[in-house]
Specification:
mainly alpha; 304 residues; 11 helices
Length: 304
């Protein structure tokens, strides 16, 4: 009887979020098809360029998250205005990385492969919406909790607050790892290096914010730092996924760049910016975003 009640509740939830469910299904099928094509290449004996660099990039994200978490051993909290400004800066770097290191190279690659700028742009836009559908679906169905907005997702009542908060961080870190993998998938350091640098830099304040939030939730300093650092593992796991989904066919590369860019911009708009604007510090958060965006733009020019 309990099984049927749970099944009915799940079906009701899916029907209530039918658009997100359909989008998630489409995005996951697309990812499976694209990674399957890469798997076929590997089984045929082809070498996949950039896989080692993608792994190192994901590792850099993990290390940066860990470094950011360490000050929480001594700090209990940051002034809210400072935290919002730091997260705003992280959002600006992610936004710029999504544009300059993912979408613009995607437009160039799409135009090159199809011989037409309009068709190339359409392919990148397709990838963008796949990324948005993927993140919207994960956001809708993965049980999680944000510090200010409370718990949400399918079956969130089965998990304690710490688990829900860690799941929420996973929503951020997995697409960042995938973006690193896509950036390195063709072995192009001009795309992968500035993108990885931007993501690693923004992981530092994010790692600190997560560790402080875990401390505020009642964890000991050591446990908060360890769990915050461990969330960076999702970037290490996401990097090879990013390589796999964008290496199967030439056209999979611009689609993958669009998907990663769309996913990152979704996270910035849907999660990080609203979080930094909830406490009345919109100006500080916006200035932080502009500084982060400008810094990433300069880095992309210098390293790209």
């Amino acid at each position: 009887m309990r099984f049927f009640r749970n099944g009915t509740r799940t079906l009701d939830y899916v029907l209530k979020h039918a658009f997100a469910a359909a989008g998630l299904t489409l995005a996951l099928l697309s990812v499976v098809v694209m990674t399957g094509m890469t798997g076929a290449r590997i089984l045929s004996g082809e070498a996949i360029p950039g896989l080692r660099f993608a792994f190192l990039g994901g590792l850099a994200g993990l290390v940066a998250t860990s470094v950011g978490a360490v000050p929480a051993m001594a700090l209990r909290a940051l002034p809210q205005r400072v935290e919002d400004a730091l997260l705003g800066g992280a959002a600006g770097m992610m936004l710029a990385a999504g544009v300059f290191s993912l979408l613009l190279p995607g437009l160039e690659a799409g135009a090159l492969h199809l011989g037409n700028k309009g068709a190339g742009a359409a392919v990148v836009v397709l990838g963008m919406f796949l990324g948005v559908f993927l993140m919207l679906g994960i956001e809708s169905f993965l049980p999680h909790e944000h510090a200010k907005s409370g718990p949400s997702g399918l079956g969130y009542e089965r998990y304690d607050r710490i688990c829900l908060f860690v799941f929420a961080i996973a929503v951020h870190n997995l697409p960042e790892g995938m973006a690193i993998g896509v950036g390195f998938s063709q072995g192009d350091m001009g795309i992968g290096l500035p993108l990885t640098t931007a993501i690693a830099l923004q992981d530092i304040p994010e790692g600190l914010a997560v560790a402080l939030a875990l401390r505020a939730a009642g964890l000991t300093p050591g446990a908060a730092v360890v769990i915050s650092a461990a969330t960076g593992v999702l970037e290490l796991l996401g990097a090879p996924i990013g390589v796999a989904l964008s290496s199967g066919l030439p056209l999979a590369y611009p689609v993958g760049l669009g998907l990663a860019g769309g996913a990152m911009i979704f996270v910035v708009s849907h999660e990080i910016i609203p979080e930094t604007h909830r406490n009345g510090h919109q100006t500080s958060a916006t200035l932080g975003l502009m500084i982060g965006f400008a810094l990433m733009m300069v880095m992309d020019t210098a390293l790209g």
